[in-house]
Amino acid sequence: MDATVLELLILAAFAAFVAYRLYSTLGRRTGHEQPPFDPRRERVETRRPTVAQKEDNVVPLPRAREMPRSAPEVKIPAGSPLAAGVDAVRQADPSFEPDSFVQGAKMAHEMIAKAFAQGDRSALKPLLAEDVYASFDAAISAREKAGHQIDFSFIGLKQTNLEEVSLRGRIAEVTVRFVSELISATRDAAGAVIEGAAGVVREVTDVWTFARDTRSSDPNWKLVSTAAGA
Questions:
Q1: Where are the domains of the chain?
Q2: Are 92 and 214 in contact (CB under 8 A)?
Q3: Pairing between strand 193-196 and 171-187?
Q4: Is domain 55-228 given the CATH code 3.10.450.240 in the classification?
């Protein structure tokens, strides 16, 4: 047999053996394979919003199954009006959990406070009921007309208390008291501080009420009432 032909036969046999080994290692599906890399899918997944940054800046207050199991943060005395309110809302919406709600409310509070200081209407609108948005918008417009600006830094929340939970027909309402620390100073057109104090951390108490239609497929709550706490 010609040496060249013999060499080709040996190479062909070796190639067949390598192909078999590759199939043995990579070709069998076990049910645990990673999906092939798709750069388009990868870009979409890396841009998926977090709880604090949902589409259109809406903050759905997270549900209980999304929260790690730990000791309850919200203390609800048995037999209290607060407990009765929680039970009523749960009857209409079994996913409602006070701890989960408070976690989402904290994020919403900071987002709304920052957006108002920055005059960011697009961030505010999806988070507020129509009448609350109208009052915020009017305040921002008056500030813009006067040429005023706010220097604002949100330091953090010192305390968050669930004040009241109720069900009015199909509408669930939850009132939360926030005690926050922040820096806020309003400057006039010339840059002089006319309200607040630049660089000074102060404590602010807000009492906000959020509401949601329990029959709606939209899981998001909106701010329907604001008041300054004592």
A1: 3-33, 55-228
A2: yes
A3: antiparallel
A4: yes
